[in-house]
What does this fold into?
Amino acid sequence: MSVFLLQVVPAAADTLNTAATAAPLASTDVPVIDLLMRGGLIMIPLVALSLLSFYIILERYFTIRKAAGDPDSFMASIRALMVKGDLAGAKLLCAQTASPLARMVEKGLRRIGLPLKEIETSVENVGKIEIARLEKNISILGIIAGIAPMIGFVGTIIGVIKIFYSIAATKEFGIPQVADGLYVKLVTSATGLIVGIIAHVGYHWLSILVERMVFRMENSAIEFMDILQDN
It folds into this structure.
């Protein structure tokens, strides 16, 4: 009898091990879409703000990159044309070059004959307009960076309200009463912070790109005025 039991126990253990190996563990992964849906209606403005942030960041980046061009090569060409006295050629080059710097120089070329101070003022005024165009909508990212976490905090408050309402309605305190409210609380808070961080980083990154662009434009404007004085 004891021999029989010794044979049965290992066999049963082998069967249990095989079953445990064959049966996959229950997956705890939750699809991102389903997780976001748990946040409720408060996720709608957060998703809208995130899409707006990505649009502004990408649109401004490509606009600034296109506007940057090659200022050194452009100014070298302008200098060469003006040294030869080819004012018409310099104006044509500016018209064919789609950049803020080209528009500034073109304005200065059209003012040749006036005192240098007036030409310089005209170039600076065009530069201010071009800078304002480059900074278009960047300030919106700063606004989004501020309000997105606040909207997420509103979701946190809604989640807490749902928890207490569920407890009051069921007169019980357990996982079923707390789960839905916690989902709303955590998902909206996390989403609001992520959107705010993205907008904050995008705002400062684009601001740095614009500052570099402004520095190049100022240097080129000074070079242009030097060319006028030399000629």
In short: The radius of gyration is 33 Å. The first helix runs from residue 2 to 22. Residues 1-27 have pLDDT under 50 and may be disordered. The chain is about 85% helix and 0% strand.
